[in-house]
Amino acid sequence: MDQVKTFKISGYLKKKGRRISFTKDVKALKDSDALEKIYSEIGSRHKAKRFDIKVVEVQEVESK
Fold this sequence. Notes:
- This protein is α+β, with helices and mostly antiparallel strands and 64 residues long.
- It is built from one helix and three strands, in the order ββαβ.
- It has one helix at residues 31-46, and strands at residues 5-15, 18-28, 53-61.
- Strands 2-1-3 form a three-stranded antiparallel beta sheet, covered by helices on one side.
- The mean pLDDT is 93.
């Protein structure tokens, strides 16, 4: 059985000639699922397309 992990995802959003930086913690089974969640959340919140969202770093956070 797979265990849910926490990923810290950093990147930026290009919107109207500006760069809006973000860092977000996401719970998912694997990093590709976490990326999908980020694209969905940020795209929905800022009405941005996937090609406007640039992910710089995906890092697994260790559970305590």
